[in-house]
Structures are given as structure tokens and as C-alpha cells.
């Protein structure tokens, strides 16, 4: 009885991830680095807001993973607006006044 009980009690250990703590620590450090970069870029560019976006190729979406404090997280379709154009073409857009550009979408 005791051997069976101990064996059954240890079974959950087979499904535990021994590296989960280390992985979570690295993820937290990476998030801190990204957030620091976001703030530095915002300062350097004197930008109203900055967002680090990742591409979900399966759904054709851009998803903000990190944003400056005054920006809100967002999800945008690839190919729409400046950000979508950059994601789709791989080419940056440099303009003096975004509102004068055909890619400008005031709804974004």
C-alpha cells in the first residue's frame, strides 16, 4: 500500500517542467529589455507613442507585444496603414506629415 501510494503520489512529477522557472525568469528579463528599448526609442524619436509589434502570419495580424506607457495595445491587419504596409513590404516609411500620405488611416 505504501509503495503504491508513494508511486502514485510521485506521478505528477513526470509531467512537471524542471526548466519552467528558468524560462519564466528569462521571459521576464526579455520583457524588461523590450520595455526599456520602447522607452528609449520614444525619447530618441520624441514620439507620442511606440509599440513593438509581432506578426501572426496565420491570421494576417500585427499584435503589439510591448507599448509605451501612453499607448494602448492594439491588433491590426497586415497591409493596412503605415504599420501594416511596413510589415507587408519590409520597407520603412519616412514622412514629415503622416496625414498627407495615402497610407494614413485615421481609424488606426
Describe the structure in your own words.
- The protein has helices spanning 2-10, 20-45, 81-89; strands spanning 51-56, 61-67, 75-77.
- The longest helix has 26 residues, at 20-45.
- A three-stranded antiparallel sheet has the order 1-2-3.
- The protein contains three helices and three strands.
**Uncertain spans:** none
Overall 3D form? elongated
Main sheet strand line-up: 1-2-3
SSE ordering: HHEEEH
List the helices and strands and how they pair.
Elements: H1 2-10, H2 20-45, E1 51-56, E2 61-67, E3 75-77, H3 81-89
Antiparallel strand pairs: 1-2, 2-3
Task: List the main descriptive attributes of the protein structure presented here.
3 helices, 108 residues, 15% strand, single chain
Short recap of the structure:
With 108 residues, the protein is an alpha+beta fold. The protein contains three helices and three strands; from the N terminus they run ααβββα. The protein starts with a helix and ends in a 19-residue tail after the last helix.
Amino acid at each position: 500500500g505504501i509503495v503504491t501510494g508513494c508511486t502514485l503520489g510521485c506521478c505528477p512529477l513526470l509531467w512537471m517542467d524542471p526548466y519552467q522557472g528558468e524560462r519564466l525568469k528569462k521571459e521576464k528579463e526579455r520583457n524588461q529589455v523590450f520595455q526599456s528599448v520602447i522607452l528609449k526609442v520614444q525619447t530618441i524619436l520624441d514620439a507620442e507613442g511606440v509599440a513593438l509589434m509581432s506578426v501572426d502570419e496565420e491570421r494576417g495580424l500585427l499584435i503589439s507585444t510591448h507599448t509605451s506607457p501612453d499607448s494602448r495595445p492594439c491588433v491590426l491587419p497586415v497591409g493596412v496603414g503605415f504599420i501594416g504596409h511596413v510589415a507587408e513590404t519590409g520597407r520603412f516609411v519616412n514622412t514629415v506629415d503622416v496625414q498627407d500620405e495615402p497610407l494614413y488611416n485615421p481609424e488606426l
